[in-house]
Automatic annotation (TrEMBL):
The keyword Membrane applies. The chain crosses the membrane at residues 12-29, 49-74, 95-113, 143-170, 182-202. It is found in: Membrane. The keyword Membrane applies. It holds the Pfam family Sdh_cyt. CDD domains: SQR_TypeB_1_TM. It comes from the Bacteria. It comes from Paenibacillus alginolyticus. InterPro entries: Cytochrome_b-558, SQR/QFR_C/D, Succ_DH_cyt_b558_Firmicute, SuccDH_FuR_B_TM-su. This is Succinate dehydrogenase cytochrome b558 subunit. Keywords: Heme, Iron, Membrane, Metal-binding, Transmembrane, Transmembrane helix.
Amino acid sequence: MGNSYYFRKIHSLLGVIPVGFFLIEHLLTNYEATKGPGAFVDQINWLNGLPLVLFLEIFGIWIPLLYHAVYGLYVAYQARNNVSQYGYFRNQMFMLQRVTGVITFLFVAWHFFETRLQVAFGNVAHEELGRTMHDIATNPVMFTIYVIGTLSAAFHFCNGMWSFLVSWGITIGPRAQRFSSIIWMALFVVMAVMFIMSLTAFTDTQFQLPVEAHTGH
């Protein structure tokens, strides 16, 4: 029981730092696409120009994300959802947290394969990720999958933040928790809109142009 407590605490903390930060960074990076291909390429180049970027990715993103995802699947497997019996709001949110966690895990794994792993294999350059996202976004099936995946990730993060604040003793009492629900669900709406705007922006035919057309090199 003691080990389970600490494993859950680590799982909860990693969902905020660094996994939550990575989700927000990913959202802001892709939102640059709404400003045009040039802005998106500049943001990608800036990120990949950070010192020790590979080290940061492995130990600051992928290992914490893997732990959070795998242990989260274990928690989801063990969870006893009784929505049909009780139907309380928080019970519904509990169930949705588990469902969106599984969807997000599958989506992130697929997105990682289509983008970052292709860069690692040398099939796609960092500067060509805009064109890759254009091919994805202009496919109706993939666009739908990405909408579902990004909305699941945004909900899982925002609802998870509500749980994090409760479990770490930050929001104590019904009033604080109700206020927290409003704040985080409002943020979910903002993030959902930004993700969809980003995906829509990638459908622009400008993302088909060569990288040089956007960078001026």
